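To the wet lab folks,

You asked to see what we're planning to order before we commit. Fair enough. Below is the target structure as tokens, and below that is the sequence we designed to fit it. If anything looks off to you, flag it before the synthesis order goes out.
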């Protein structure tokens, strides 16, 4: 039986939820949701949910920048961390994990972001266990894929341009131990609005959750075939103690563009369907919705003029502190601020969010 291990990607520039998140404390290390564990961050939630029953993990490794590594150690003492010398996107982070974590080629690697919301955690662990079994046993009999790269897909409910899309072969779908799985026809990354609308109307199309499972040997082979300009310099840099140079030489690209798109075209990817109350919390609008708050949100950039109406809220940093103000008011900030349009009816939710963040920073 193949062993299963997890790799948690805990990078991020802290820009999409500014000024709540910052480069010094990006989204994974913020307590965005209330719960039984007071002020538990997304990173802590990610670790805790995969340590639950039904998922027998051999070990967990976190891939993070030096700054994030210190936050990770403080929030989950004793966690094993691989430090990146610089951020080079997700392909580099996964290449480092594949090269540096010395495991048998048959062992199954689960790759998860550190900053996503999962509501149905028990179901999620079951999906991971089933998908790990699919990655370990292969899919030759069902799909003609001996060593699949398994990706988890989320049902599409709007024409989103911020997500990648998975296009499964619905006619060849199969129930694999209670898990609906399909060979992937194509993996399409972040379309324009017209294409997103077209994809959203296509039966069976799913969003890419950024969660993957594969044998170590399968991802090593995929890097060799599709992205040696990412993997080779990082692997060589790790082996000879010059990782910074290897990172500088590696192409900065997402795993989606570098590996998953060409692997899907080569019929080496299987999609497992997942409905677990997932969100990537990738914007203020999505975060407000996940908190059951009203309104939409965006980051107003320095020098950009904007107006906050009477139903709007503005989140900014003044003297290092998070401050919430009500509209109406004009905005012409020297640093980015968040404009939460229509959020004032649920102001208490935003106040509680900022209070949790302030306690974490104290």
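Sequence we intend to order:
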């Amino acid at each position: 039986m193949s062993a299963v291990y997890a790799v948690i990607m805990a990078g991020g520039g802290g820009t999409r939820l500014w000024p709540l998140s910052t480069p010094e404390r990006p989204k994974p290390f913020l307590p965005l949701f209330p719960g039984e564990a007071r002020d538990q961050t997304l990173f802590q939630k990610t670790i805790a949910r995969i340590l639950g029953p039904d998922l027998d993990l051999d070990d967990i490794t976190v891939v993070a920048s030096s700054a994030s590594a210190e936050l990770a150690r403080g929030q989950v003492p004793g966690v094993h961390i691989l430090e990146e010398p610089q951020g080079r996107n997700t392909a580099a982070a996964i290449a480092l994990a594949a090269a540096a974590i010395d495991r048998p080629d048959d062992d199954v690697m689960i790759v998860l972001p550190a900053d996503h919301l999962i509501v149905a955690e028990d179901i999620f662990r079951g999906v991971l266990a089933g998908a790990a079994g699919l990655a370990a046993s292969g899919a030759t009999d069902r799909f003609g894929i001996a060593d699949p790269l398994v990706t988890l897909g989320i049902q599409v409910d709007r024409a989103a341009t911020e997500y990648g899309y998975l296009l499964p072969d619905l006619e060849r779908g199969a129930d694999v131990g209670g898990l609906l799985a399909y060979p992937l026809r194509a993996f399409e990354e972040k379309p324009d609005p017209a294409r997103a609308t077209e994809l959203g109307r296509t039966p069976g199309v799913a969003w890419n959750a950024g969660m993957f499972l594969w044998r170590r040997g399968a991802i090593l082979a995929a890097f060799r075939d599709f992205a040696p300009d990412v993997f080779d310099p990082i692997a060589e840099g790790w082996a000879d103690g010059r990782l910074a140079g290897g990172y500088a030489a590696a192409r900065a690209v997402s795993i989606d563009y570098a590996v998953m798109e060409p692997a899907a075209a080569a019929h080496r990817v299987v999609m497992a369907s997942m409905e677990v109350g997932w969100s990537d919390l990738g914007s203020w609008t999505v975060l407000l919705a996940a908190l059951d708050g009203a309104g939409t949100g965006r980051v107003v950039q320095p020098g950009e003029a904007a107006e906050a109406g009477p139903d709007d809220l503005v989140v900014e940093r003044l003297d290092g502190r998070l401050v919430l103000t009500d509209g109406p008011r004009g905005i012409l900030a020297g640093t980015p601020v968040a404009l939460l349009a229509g959020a004032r009816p649920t102001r208490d939710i935003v106040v509680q969010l900022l209070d949790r963040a302030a306690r974490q920073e104290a």
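Structural context that might help your review: The chain has two domains: 4-145+209-258, 284-361. The first strand starts at residue 4 and ends at 9.

Thanks,
Computational group
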